[in-house]
């Protein structure tokens, strides 16, 4: 049995390495590397004197095996068996004169890290080395194998700079590391010193926490689940590319170097503070990714420069070889599994279309809110939410019989279960908007420490006063994502019935006597156990009548629900799964991390950097699938700029133009706005021009083509206007009406025995083309949403792969299951048809003239006759407006006759008032607050 103090000079410089794995009982790995060639020896090495009762066995095989101790109370067995086959020195013969001063490639490569062995959220709870608990699977062996040796000199003598490649396997985890021969010499020296000191000083737990017990071989002091390449580096401060009021050129001359633990994964890299384990920064691989080595690009010796669109990160290595190694490893990972994010894809998007993705559409808020609530209730790890406006107290399922499905309490319940909840809110200009995002932030963050809320932008520092974060999304566990036009806010929840009244227990169609009149404004607490209302407190709203006020009193009415009808809300959303949900989550993470970087108040540990999960997932692996999902190809699109996410993109705009240009039969559009047709001055987007070009092509070649556009008939609020109308957008003479139809939505009902009508507020942002392609998102058809440089938006392009038999232009046609089912649902709702046979073929003349146009014309005529509605084509000037308002309606003069007329209304479709106030100049006066705002705000 050779002594542990065996001389380094003996056996051609044998070296020793070990790793003390911290845990409750600890375990060890004894490594022997020998340059003796052709000799195979078997020897038993006792380590009891150094490591207590643990022993190692060198058996002459080709690997070393370390057995972690079994969990107590199993009796302690004899030491683990450790075996080794000495590697044959390999590598090409090089002159090593320039390598003597080089240090090791201090890196650790992990090839596999399954999530089932390490919870994803553990990365956010990193601790310093002294506080680490058990880091390894107890009872599972660690196997070490020498893969190769790189020798940079001729001859048989082993030089100190000979590099050995070691492969460690622990369960399903695999690490590959490289260490120089001199490191094993240093470890042997430490073991010798330890053996001598052990004779005089007793061993304590202090030795287990001592960094030298971990670092010599097992390089990762703070293992990161799923880390591909890891190692200690020096990082230079600064390098961020920030828009707004920032010190120009800062950190170019005044900077500092900090020691950080760098971790590289398949689509990003991060670095940690070794002393605390806190993630200090996350750099996502994107189209701006670039990596360079050398003094010129980094301005430092042995430097590595890593760029993306938001930052230039400069690292300092101990040698040129180490810098080249980092460059090679990072490049291989980025251009391998992370290659999807390194280039622009179709429509200049940041991600490619994801094949075979489960997707589910939602029309109106009732189904969307319920599905979001069910998904949130299934959350295990993370919930991401971003909205233009968020109301914490809304009920997700109605009528609410308890607080079980109230949004804030649902999030609190999940936070108490350990789910991390991150919310990004648009920080409004208080004088212009009354959505009170500060109240929403405080209300959520006071619920639980696991709920983190950030607001963006800071208007002064970013110089952003006119633009907004308009996107809406909810992501659960990065596996299912909801997006579209629906904020989780007041007034958005609705059904296909589009009710105008919500008097508890009342029939809104039956005449009411004064004795049944309820309290004008409800301010007392509501007994949910007996509640029958659908819209509680501030949720009962009418945008035309009054904007929201006193949002910190959520259950108090702010309009008289016995006198004022609510305004129904029509919207469209979508749920996507798998890789598409990963892409939505990556967008949120990019915005969250960007906000944390640019706002100093969020730079502390209370607001963590977020990490995207690996893209190695298939749709069949998602833990939760929204019921009714259909398989399709899905591409995530967005509008972002340097102020909103750190880079510029307008893939939603490109997708709209492409889908319109490539459409063959019809387009169906639902949108809140239609401000298009570039005039070279105030309007830039060309969506309207694309529709005109497609119609002109159909007109010249004589194939049938239709464009059905459903728009909001009147802007919300008072004192607001737009100089652009759809009628002005399309100047094609009278022939265009054979190809294009502009419509709105309206409904009617009774409130306290009084007949009334109201517009249905169209907030949808949707396009369907040829029953095969669908765009759903948050982007309006205007410059604000489409150009990318203004509002931030999010959308998806869904392309059907599951085709079903249908009819198009009187011919058999293979329609997409997703697009067809969505269109039929929309048509059934707005047309009030009894059979799908009437709406199956959107291209036929019978449908276009006898159903679509006839229904819109008939409903418009009835509403004008009964209610003298506004807006209407009969009012072309202010004089006409005064005359129209002064007339008494049939509903007030003869309710019985009015009811007879209203029985003929079918669905909700009405004609869009293209000529309403056509003779008037609609720009706001210059002395008004709207007039002082640039016209770009309204376009």
How does this structure look, described?
The protein has 939 residues and is α+β, with helices and mostly antiparallel strands. Among the domains are: 15-96 and 128-213, no CATH class; 229-245 and 253-343, PH-domain like; 630-911, Endonuclease, Chain A, CATH 3.30.870. 21% of the residues lie in helices and 23% in strands. It contains 19 helices and 37 strands. The protein has a 17-stranded mixed sheet that branches. Strands 5, 6, 7, 8, 9, 10, 11, 12, 13, 14, 15 and 16 form a 12-stranded antiparallel sheet that branches. β35 and β36 (811-816) form a beta hairpin. α11 (651-662) packs parallel to α12. It is elongated, with a radius of gyration of 34 Å. The relative contact order is 0.08. Mean pLDDT is 78; it is low at 1-118, 215-223, 505-524 and 717-721.
Provide a brief overview of the structure:
The protein is an alpha+beta fold and 939 residues long.
Question: What are the low-pLDDT stretches, counting only 5+ consecutive residues below 50?
Answer: 1-118, 215-223, 505-524, 717-721
* CATH superfamily label of the domain at 630-911: Endonuclease Chain A
Estimated helix fraction: 10-25%
Q: Can you count the beta strands?
A: 37
Task: Give me the secondary-structure topology.
Blueprint: E1 15-21, E2 27-33, E3 43-45, H1 48-51, E4 56-58, E5 64-67, E6 108-112, E7 141-150, E8 163-170, E9 173-180, H2 181-198, H3 205-209, E10 229-236, E11 257-264, E12 268-272, E13 279-284, E14 290-293, H4 295-298, E15 303-307, E16 312-316, H5 320-335, E17 354-363, H6 365-377, E18 382-387, H7 407-416, E19 420-426, H8 437-445, E20 451-456, H9 459-462, E21 473-476, E22 480-484, E23 569-570, E24 572-577, H10 578-598, E25 630-640, E26 649-650, H11 651-662, E27 666-671, H12 687-701, E28 706-711, H13 726-729, E29 740-751, E30 754-759, E31 761-762, E32 765-769, E33 773-777, H14 783-786, E34 793-800, E35 803-808, E36 811-816, H15 817-831, H16 845-867, H17 878-886, H18 890-893, H19 895-902, E37 909-911
Parallel strand pairs: 18-19, 19-20, 23-31, 27-28, 28-29
Antiparallel strand pairs: 1-2, 3-4, 5-7, 6-9, 6-10, 7-8, 8-9, 10-11, 10-16, 11-12, 12-13, 14-15, 15-16, 17-24, 17-25, 18-21, 21-22, 22-24, 25-26, 25-34, 27-32, 29-30, 29-37, 32-33, 33-34, 35-36
């Amino acid at each position: 049995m050779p002594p542990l103090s065996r001389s380094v000079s003996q056996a051609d410089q044998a070296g020793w390495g070990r790793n003390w794995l911290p845990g409750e009982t600890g375990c060890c790995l004894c490594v022997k590397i020998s340059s003796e060639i052709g000799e195979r020896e078997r020897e038993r090495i006792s380590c009891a004197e150094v490591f207590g009762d643990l022993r190692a066995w060198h058996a002459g095989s080709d690997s070393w095996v370390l057995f972690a101790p079994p969990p107590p109370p199993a009796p302690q067995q004899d030491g683990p068996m450790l075996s080794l086959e000495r590697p044959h020195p390999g590598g090409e013969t090089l002159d090593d004169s320039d390598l003597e001063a080089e240090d090791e490639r201090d890196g650790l490569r992990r090839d596999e890290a399954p999530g089932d062995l390490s919870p994803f959220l553990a990365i956010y709870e990193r601790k310093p080395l002294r506080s680490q608990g058990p880091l390894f699977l107890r009872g599972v062996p660690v196997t070490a194998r020498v893969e190769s040796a790189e020798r940079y000199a001729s001859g048989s003598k082993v030089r100190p700079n000979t590099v050995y490649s070691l492969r460690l396997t622990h369960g399903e985890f695999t690490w590959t590391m490289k260490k120089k021969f001199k490191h094993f010499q240093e470890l042997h020296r430490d073991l010798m010193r330890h053996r001598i000191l052990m004779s005089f000083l007793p061993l304590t737990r202090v030795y287990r926490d001592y960094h030298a017990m971990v670092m010599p071989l097992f390089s990762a002091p703070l293992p990161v689940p799923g880390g591909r390449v890891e190692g200690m580096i020096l990082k230079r401060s600064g390098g961020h590319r920030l828009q707004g009021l920032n010190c120009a050129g800062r950190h170019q001359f005044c900077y500092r170097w900090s020691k950080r633990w760098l971790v590289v994964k398949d689509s990003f890299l991060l670095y940690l503070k070794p002393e605390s384990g806190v993630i200090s920064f996350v750099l996502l691989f994107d189209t701006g990714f670039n990596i360079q080595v050398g003094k010129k690009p980094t301005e430092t010796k042995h430097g590595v420069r890593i760029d993306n669109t938001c930052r230039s990160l400069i690292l300092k290595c101990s040698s040129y070889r180490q810098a080249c190694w980092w460059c090679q490893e990072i490049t291989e990972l980025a251009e391998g599994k992370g290659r999807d994010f390194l280039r622009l894809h179709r429509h200049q998007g940041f991600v490619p279309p994801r094949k075979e993705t489960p997707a589910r559409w939602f029309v109106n808020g009732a189904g969307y809110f319920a599905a979001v609530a069910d998904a949130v209730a299934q959350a295990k790890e993370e919930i991401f939410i971003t909205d233009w406006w968020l109301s914490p107290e809304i009920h997700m399922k109605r009528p609410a019989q308890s607080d079980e499905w109230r949004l804030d309490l649902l999030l609190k319940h999940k936070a108490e279960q350990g789910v991390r909840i991150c919310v990004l809110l648009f920080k409004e200009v208080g004088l212009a908007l009354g959505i009170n995002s500060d109240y929403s932030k405080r209300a959520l963050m006071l619920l639980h420490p696991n709920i983190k809320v950030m607001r963006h932008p800071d208007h002064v520092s970013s110089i952003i006063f006119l633009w907004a974060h308009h996107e809406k999304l909810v992501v659960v566990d990065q596996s299912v994502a909801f997006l579209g036009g629906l904020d989780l806010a007041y007034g958005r929840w609705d059904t296909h019935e589009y009710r105008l009244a919500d008097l508890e227990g009342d029939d809104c169609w039956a005449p009411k006597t004064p004795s049944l009149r309820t309290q004008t404004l409800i301010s007392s607490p509501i007994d949910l156990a007996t509640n029958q209302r659908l819209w509680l407190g501030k949720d009962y709203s009418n945008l035309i009548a009054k904007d929201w006020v006193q949002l910190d009193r959520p259950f108090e009415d702010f309009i008289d629900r016995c006198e004022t009808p609510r305004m129904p809300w029509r919207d469209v959303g979508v749920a996507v799964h798998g890789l598409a949900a990963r892409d939505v989550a990556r967008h949120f993470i990019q915005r969250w991390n960007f906000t944390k970087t640019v706002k100093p108040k969020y730079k502390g540990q209370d607001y963590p950097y977020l990490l995207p999960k690996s893209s190695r997932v298939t749709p069949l692996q998602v833990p939760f699938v929204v019921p009714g999902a259909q398989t399709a190809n899905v591409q995530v699109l967005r509008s972002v700029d340097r102020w909103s996410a750190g880079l510029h993109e307008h893939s939603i705009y490109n997708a709209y133009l492409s889908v319109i240009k490539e459409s063959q039969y019809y387009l169906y559009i639902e949108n809140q706005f239609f401000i298009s047709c570039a005039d070279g001055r105030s309007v830039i987007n060309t969506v309207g021009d694309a529709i005109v070009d497609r119609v002109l092509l159909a007109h010249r070649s004589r194939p049938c083509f239709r464009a059905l556009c459903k728009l909001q008939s009147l802007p919300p609020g008072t004192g607001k206007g737009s100089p652009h109308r759809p009628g002005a957008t399309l100047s094609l003479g009278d022939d265009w009406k054979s190809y294009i139809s502009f419509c709105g939505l309206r409904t009617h009902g009774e409130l306290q025995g009084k007949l009334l009508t109201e517009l249905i507020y169209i907030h949808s942002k949707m396009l369907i083309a040829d029953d095969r392609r669908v765009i759903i998102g948050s982007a309006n058809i205007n410059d604000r949403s489409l150009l990318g440089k203004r509002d931030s938006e999010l959308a998806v392009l869904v392309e059907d792969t599951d085709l079903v038999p249908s009819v198009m232009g009187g011919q058999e046609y293979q329609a997409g299951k997703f697009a067809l089912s969505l269109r039929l649902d929309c048509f059934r709702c707005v047309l009030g048809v009894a059979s799908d046979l009437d709406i199956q073929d959107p291209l036929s003349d019978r449908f276009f003239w006898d159903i679509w146009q006839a229904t819109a014309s008939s409903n418009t005529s009835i509403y004008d006759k009964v209610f003298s509605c506004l807006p209407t084509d009969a009012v072309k000037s202010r004089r006409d407006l005064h005359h129209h308002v002064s007339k008494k309606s049939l509903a007030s003069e003869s309710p019985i006759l009015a009811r007879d007329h209203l029985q003929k209304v079918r669905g909700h479709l009405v004609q869009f008032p293209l000529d309403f106030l056509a003779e008037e100049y609609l720009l706001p006066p210059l002395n008004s607050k709207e007039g002082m705002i640039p016209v770009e705000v309204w376009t």
